[in-house]
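How a chain folds remains the central question behind the approach discussed here. For one protein, we set the task of working out the structure tokens from the amino acid sequence alone. The sequence in question and its structure tokens are set out directly beneath this paragraph.

_____
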Amino acid sequence: MFGKKKPQAAPAEGGAEARAKARRKKATRLPKGVKQLIGYDAMLRNGIASLGDGRWSATILFQDINYQLSPESHQMEIIDRWAKLINSFEAGQSVQIASYTRSRGVREILADVMMDETGDSLDHYRLDYNRLAQGKLESVSRNTSTVKTLTVTVRESDEQAAVATLNALCNNLVSQMRSIDACKATRLDREHRLRLMAEVLRPGEEFRFDERRFEHQPGKPDTKDLVCPWSIDARNPIQLDIESLDSKYLHRTMWVSSLPPELSDQLVNDLTGLRARVDVSIHLAPWTAAKA
């Protein structure tokens, strides 16, 4: 009694009309906010991030040896050890090896190398040096360095299980990586992981974060406020227009899949050697026994 009326069934729509209706619905859908476009939900103090859908991740920063200068026999040994590390992952786990190219503008470099005047008889030499340094640096567009990370993702039902799994996994990975010719490997906590994210998403802006102050903030503080740009304009299907307080840049992604079984060991090195803001990520996931 007094139940809701059962709605009448709508007449069947033709294929073309249904597709047109779907397009109109998609066009009127509200765009995602900037925070929703950042690929995690929350981050713990130990650096473990909740990605949603039962997925959790942690990141390791590493500096490997100079592979290119090693003799061929030693290069094969390095490749074999890395292969064993990659093959140690199990079903439900995935790994992303990323290389971020850091660049510094001419002004930043000049601030480091310019000599201040002191008011003595040698100031004219300092001015000559500054002019020479400025002319030399302005002839070079960018000065770059490379940051390398390994991010591992697991699936767990709750936070406690995820922390236990990732702690054990990261300890094992750091140990394996350090055994590869004394490779330096360090797991990133929340502060350092957010710092790296802010450097990529808000280049050139000062990163301010205090763990103790963050923990005692009233309400529910969000770490995304520390790394999110002010706006991400995705109306252009080819590229993103990203803007923040002191930074404005265009972002474009190239996805390469279905790679051939054999690749040159120079490929990633050539990509990361580009004198520009280029981030190269290699995504790997183990095959289950049924798919192998």
Q: What stands out?
A: Residues 33-105+142-284 form one domain. The chain has two domains: 33-105+142-284, 106-141. The beta strands are 42-43, 49-52, 55-63, 94-104, 143-155, 184-187, 231-233, 240-243, 248-251, 279-284. Confidence is low (pLDDT under 50) at residues 1-13, 26-30.
